[in-house]
Each structure stands twice: as structure tokens, then as C-alpha cells.
Design goal:
InterPro entries: DUF7109 (IPR055533). It holds the Pfam family DUF7109. The protein is mainly α. It has 2 domains: about 80 residues, Arc Repressor Mutant, subunit A, CATH 1.10.10; about 55 residues, no CATH class. About 60% of the residues lie in helices and about 5% in strands. A hairpin with a 4-residue loop joins strand 1 and strand 2. Helix 5 runs parallel beside helix 7 and helix 6 runs antiparallel to helix 7. It is globular, with a radius of gyration of 16 Å. The mean pLDDT is about 95.
């Protein structure tokens, strides 16, 4: 069993946001309900991949870091995901969309700088696409990041 990036986004979207430990437990519960077992290392690999692709993003709300559905996600409920609200002891959470968007924009700017410095053209193209998705997803302006990427591509 492997959850897609959009299914991981669906898991976190069910609650509005989950900590790393909560997300791992939620994925383990979904796998268990499907009759499969996943280890923490596998789950972390999925989370890392989804985070790199901006399907989920980390958000520091001042108290903790939550994973939330990101600007490239089309959240999808995984098989047996409808059981999660009954299993997990997690109240629905709300995030400050403007603060979240700004944190993601800052991350995007840093990754764009690294991609350009490392001449990673493929990653720079991906990040260019993310600039458009991010502006549609949160109230942020990615013009400066997009301009830097565009100028080099």
C-alpha cells in the first residue's frame, strides 16, 4: 500500500492540520484498516515526497508544526479515511491562511534560490509552476520569485 500525495493531503485536510506524529498515526490507521502494515520510515518517506512536491506543507502556528494540504494538492480521501475522525483524538483545526501562505512563499523563495544556484533546471521549472498555484491558494504575491525563475529559464 502506498498513499498518494493527494491522499496524504486528504488525511491532513480532514482535520485542518496534523502534527508529524498524528499524521504518522493516521496513515498507520488507514493502512491497518486496509489490512496492511506500514512502518514509520515508510510514512516519513511519503510525507517528505509530498512536502517536496507542495502537496502538503509544514505550518508553524507558534505552538507546534502542523502539516496541511498544500497549494498543489487536490485532497482525496484515502480508502478507509472516513474512519479517521472516529479513531483519532484530534479536534478540527483552523490555520491562518495569510500566515500559512507567507511561510510557504518564504520556503518557495529559498528553494528557488537553491535551484538557481545549483543549476537545477528541472526543479526551477517545478517551482515556477508552484508560484502560480501558491498565489491561487493563499493571499500572497510570488511575482519576485517567479521573475527570478523566469529570467533564468
Amino acid at each position: 500500500m502506498r498513499l498518494s500525495e493527494d491522499e496524504l493531503a486528504g488525511v491532513v485536510d480532514t482535520f485542518g492540520g496534523l502534527t508529524r506524529a498524528e499524521l504518522r498515526r493516521a496513515v498507520e490507521e488507514v493502512a491497518f484498516r486496509a489490512g496492511e502494515d506500514v512502518d514509520a520510515e515508510t510514512v516519513q518517506g511519503w510525507v517528505d515526497d509530498a512536502t517536496e512536491a507542495y502537496h502538503i506543507v509544514a505550518y508553524d502556528d507558534g505552538e507546534r508544526t502542523l502539516y496541511v494540504a498544500g497549494p498543489r494538492a487536490f485532497p482525496e480521501e484515502p480508502p478507509h479515511g472516513d474512519d479517521l475522525p472516529h479513531i483519532m483524538d484530534v479536534e478540527p483545526r483552523e490555520v491562518d491562511r495569510a500566515a500559512l501562505g507567507e511561510q510557504v512563499r518564504e520556503r518557495l523563495a529559498e528553494e528557488a534560490t537553491a535551484a538557481l544556484a545549483g543549476a537545477n533546471e528541472a526543479r526551477a521549472h517545478e517551482l515556477l509552476d508552484v508560484t502560480y498555484d501558491l498565489e491561487a491558494w493563499a493571499p500572497v504575491d510570488c511575482t519576485a520569485v517567479r521573475s527570478r525563475l523566469d529570467a533564468r529559464l
